[in-house]
Amino acid sequence: MPEPNSPLRIAIIGAGPAGLSAAISLQKALPFTEITIYEQATVLREIGTGLNIQPNTWRMLDALNVSKNINPHTIFRTSDGHAVQHRNGRTGELLCSLGQDGTPPRHLHARALRSVLQTALLANVEVPIVLDSRLLRVTEGQHGDAPLNPVTGSPSLALHFSNGHTTTVDLLIGADGVRSVTCLHGKTAYRGLIPAEKLLGIEGFPDAVTFWHGPSEWVYTCNLRHGLYELTCMAGVSKPESEEWGEKVVRREEFMRPWKDFGPLVQEVLSHSTEIQRFPLFAGARLEKIVSRGSIALIGDASHPLSGAFGAGAAFAFEDSFVLSRALSWAYTRDLQLSEGLDLYDRVRSPHYKALYGILDRFRESDARMETLGLGFDEAVRHSVREKWGEEAGFGWVYGYDVQEVWERVVGEEDERLKQTAEAHLP
Questions:
Q1: Residues 234, 189: contact at Cβ < 8 Å?
Q2: Where in the numbering of this chain does the FAD-binding domain appear (predicted)?
Q3: How far apart are CA 382 and CA 245, in angstroms?
Q4: Are 297 and 345 spatial neighbours (Cβ–Cβ below 8 Å)?
Q5: Distance between CA atoms of 22 and 12, rounded to whole angstroms?
Q6: 183-222: per-residue pLDDT in tens?
Q7: Cβ burial 306-340 (10 Å sphere, 16+ → b, else e)
Q8: What is the pLDDT at residue 307?
């Protein structure tokens, strides 16, 4: 494929981990691009508390050359090397503690403030970020009759923003999160930060990554360094009072209600929470394809609305960005239209998300079985932890998944297919 006479115009919608990682990957993978990130927020900041950096997240940070930007003193790792522990929220009994045997020390699970990861990513971004730019609609070309771009094999796209700005691009990457394609999930997370000294002063409180379980709700506590402890509480709600993301909880009784059967230790933890934010969780059905029109790709939460089920959203976004950039580069270096690269991206990532949704289907089946058993608090907690959280749950492979190995295998198979096709057409 000849290099285009003008740069390939790429718009990335969203400046979260997905959008930033896509920019970092693409600015190196394609030598003839003009990339712009559009973000609806008026100020570039992270909303929320902490996030997981799993082994697969670290591998992608290495691939992005971003891990060097993270100061080890700004992240939390447990002293005994466990990734996470699960306790009975009523009694405090330790039900299981997941280790990390065989994981390289630099890839051990960590927890960090979201701003730590954002800062590390921004240090490697070399493209402009345009704020106050919420995408309203996409049309093909400025007048809907644009000719095919010989590089992408598709018409150009006109992007219309809420601030009145309109621009035309050749490739659109949707990285604007779960609300890009999804609906409300029916669960709510309450999140807040508590001074670490208050929680570490509670007798019997572990300085660890800990889930405190009820039959269907849980409380999560984790050190985030910087003198702060993270508190996240998950509860089912029949109808959220608000769908506003990160809205401050005004009525304390609303926040405390789901945890009334939890034990005194958890109650004391909750008593130290002052400013709590509500985060309605968004999820949706699995998308059959995460590319469209030969010129649009979805990455991150926009491509797989899983409502944070695996605690690995950043890793999934980075994996998407890695494969997308490699697939587009693969098409370009083989004189193929970039739309064929998008199709290859979809063939690599969609089966992975199908497997993840399969795990969630099993979890729902487990919940349905539990409802028929009439279990008490402790029995229900043991059932839930065994089938959905412990080693028997069978999803540990998610964090050991090596997308780089998968990519090398798939692209090798695709190159062999192209070779055989070409040989079949020789005279």
A1: yes
A2: 10-356
A3: 32
A4: yes
A5: 8
A6: 344 577 888 899 999 999 999 999 999 999 999 899 999 9
A7: bbbbbbbbbbbbbbbbbbbbbbbbbbbeeebbbbb
A8: 66
In whole angstroms, give the CA distance from residue 116 to residue 73.
11
One-letter identity of residue 235: A
Under DSSP, is residue 388 helix (H, G, I), strand (E, B) or coil?
helix
C-alpha span between 357 and 362 (Å, rounded): 9
Answer whether residue 251 shows pLDDT above 90. no
- For 60-81, the DSSP string reads HHHHTT-GGGS-GGGEE--TT-
Average pLDDT of the chain is 87
The pLDDT of residue 173 is 96
For residue 206, give every residue at least 6 positions away whose Cβ sits within 8 Å of its Cβ, in sequence order, or none. Answer: 85
> Cβ-count burial of 186 within 10 angstroms (0-12 exposed, 13-18 middle, 19+ buried)?
middle
Query: Predicted confidence band at 245 (pLDDT cuts at 50, 70, 90)?
Result: very low
pLDDT at 381: 96
Distances (CA, A) of 160 to 164, 169, 226, 416: 7, 11, 41, 41
> Pairing relation of β-strands 228-236 and 218-223?
antiparallel
So what CATH class is 8-75+116-180+287-417? alpha beta
Residues with Cβ within 8 Å of residue 207, at least 6 apart in sequence: 78, 79, 200, 223
CB contact burial 129-155 (16+ within 10 A = b; e otherwise): beeebebeebbeeeeeebeebebbbbb
Q: Which residues contact 62 (CB under 8 A, 6 or more apart)?
A: none
Which secondary structure element, helix H or strand E, spans residue 371, and what is its range? helix 338-373
Beta partners for 211?
A: 86, 220
What b/e sequence results for 221-253 when a residue is b if at least 16 CB atoms lie within 10 Å of its CB, and e otherwise? bbbbbeebbbbbbbbebeebeeeeeeeebeeee
- Amino acid (one-letter) located at 398: V
- Tokens 């998300």 found at: 353
Chain length of the chain = 427
The 10 Å Cβ neighbour count of residue 274 is 10
> Which one has a higher pLDDT value, 275 or 56?
56
Sequence-ordered alpha helix ranges (H) in 182-337:
196-200, 252-256, 264-271, 313-333
Q: How far is CA 345 from the centre of its chain?
A: 17
Given a cut of 70, whether residue 248 has pLDDT beyond it is no
Give pLDDT tens digits for 168-180.
999 999 998 755 5
CA distance 163 to 383: 51
Give the DSSP letter string of 156-224. Answer: -EEEEETTS-EEEESEEEE-S-GGGT-EEEEEEEEEEEEEHHHHHTSTT--SS-EEEE-SS-EEEEEE-
